[in-house]
Amino acid sequence: MGVVRLASSTSASSMVAIVAVLGLVLNLAVVCNGGITSTFVRTIKYSADMPLDSDVFQVPPGHNAPQQVHITQGDHQGNAVIVSWITADEPGYSGVIYWSADSKNQTAVGVVTTYTFYNYTSGYIHHCTIGNLSFNTTYYYVIGIGNTERQFWFTTPPEVGPDVPYTFGLIGDLGQTFDSNRTLTHYELNPLKGQTVLYLGDLSYANDYPYHDNVRWDTWGRFTERSAAYQPWIWSAGNHEIDFAPELGETIPFKPYTHRYYVPYNASGSTAPFWYSIKRASAYIIVLASYSAYGPSTPQYQWLETELPKVNRSETPWLIVIMHCPWYNSYYSHYMEGEGMRVTFEPWFVKYKVDIVFNGHVHAYERSERVSNVAYNVVNANCTPVKDQSAPVYVTVGDGGNLEGLSTVMTEPQPDYSLFREASFGHGIFDIKNRTHAYFSWHRNQDGYAVEADSAWLFNRHYYPVDDSKSIRA
Ligand SMILES: [Fe+2]
Q: Which pLDDT tens digit goes with each residue over 318-344?
């Protein structure tokens, strides 16, 4: 009996141990799984670029007609616009005639530039800044004066202020495939009307072509004109903008990009067009450069060090950073590529309570918890990101739809910091309501439809710094 009792008792304790171990394993599975890995994955096919004779690439009719028209903010606070366009036949006139319902015609005259890249010669690239605009006003503008005139319009943002609602679109890594066209169309048709695009780098993907065929820069400019001529696109540079090709004799990085896309970097005291800031409505937007030097003593480091203390949150409560390469990314693609910059700048992001960081580069979508990894110093082994209510939310929207296809392979288990991830093409919307609340949503391209596949309320880190990680998710 004693033996039996002993055996029975051993068996019972074994069972307890097994259950305990199983429980631990199950718990670990839950603990390790940070957030949601969406089960929706699009057909994994590399999308072809649209052919050169596609309607979206059409050259506007008429002699020397302006093409590839795009606008961006032209000063620091939002009452200037840079108008850019290209004429193909001759330089033409770099002037812009503009007016509003309340003002007479005015004229501003800009500059014209060209560049060569290997065997390609650009058209005549015009950039004209029109300033002293009234806030919250629709302006019409005409370019191509003296040849073929074309007319467009834009609306200036409201004057900077803490409770000014404003809606930003987020597009990254767009390229010029059929999927790119779907993404842009879904953005245009989104009922949450984006008023300005924060562009997250990697524009045309021309460098994926033999000899970096710059004709694909021109087609991209014509493709995006239908949005970028009417609302500002705030530019950040990605790796596909570098165009460094010593084998072709092209050794000046960013040559096509810097000739085609002017930004108001001087207005924020920057010394290069790759990092700068603007204020727009209730947002302070800092553009950083993943592909420019950022270590101590570099121009970008020095600029950001003096820039962050200047942000007045009682004027612009929402502090947004955009840059191409993510710091928190749980996809295999570009895993840890942003680590150098994270180590350099993350303590400042936490100190100055950046609200949200938008990235591209990884061709998928991901949204993080508010986490930081600032305790890690290489030798102390504290290398796991921890929840931090002073830290930003990191969002990757590198899923514009370019010819390189989706990044579908994810690290497993999903890290704690990753709240939601999905490998689909789409775009984002950041909808600021007031000084405390903003609504972020990500809209996947689901066949013919845009589907809000992820969303969250964000609480401002300056005015309402409470935990927002359990806000809603669609
Ligand atoms: Fe990239």
A: 999 999 999 999 999 999 999 999 999
CATH number of the CATH domain containing 420: 3.60.21.10
Residue 71 CA neighbour count, 13 Å, CB half: 30
Residue 465 placed within a domain: yes
Range of the domain at 369: 162-201+274-473
Residue 470 pLDDT class (50, 70, 90 cuts): confident
| Residue 145 domain flag | no
- Distance from the alpha carbon of residue 96 to the mean position of ligand 1, in angstroms: 34
Alpha helices (runs of H) in 281-338, residue ranges in sequence order? 299-307
- 186 an active-site residue? no
CA 344–ligand 1 middle distance (angstroms): 20
**Distance in Å, CA 222 to ligand 1 centroid:** 21
Residues with CB under 5 A from ligand 1 (ion): 202, 238-239, 361
d(CA 249, CA 255): 12
Q: Which two tokens stand for residue 111?
A: 């500059």
Distance 228 CA to ligand 1 centre (A): 21
Residue 393 in domain:
yes
Which pair of tokens denotes residue 370?
A: 């508010």
Contact by Cβ (8 Å): 206, 213: yes
Side chain identity at residue 232, one-letter code: P
In this structure, of 2-6, 159-163, 225-229, 374-378, the range with the lowest mean pLDDT score is 2-6
Domain count, the chain: 1
DSSP string, 122-137: --EEEEEEE-SPPTT-
Q: CB count, 10 Å around CB of 467?
A: 11
Q: For residue 193, report the distance from its CA to the centre of ligand 1, in Å.
A: 26
As a residue count, the chain comes to: 474
Contact (CB, 8 A) for 420 and 34: no
Over residues 90-111, the pLDDT tens digits come to 999 999 999 999 989 999 999 9
Task: Considering the candidates 334, 363, 427, 443, report the single residue annotated as catalytic.
Answer: 334
pLDDT score for 376: 83
If one counts every other C-beta atom within 10 angstroms of the C-beta of residue 99, the result is 13
pLDDT reading at 12 higher than 80: no
Residue 363 within a domain: yes
Strands (E), 263-401: 276-280, 283-287, 318-322, 356-359, 365-368, 371-372, 386-387, 393-397
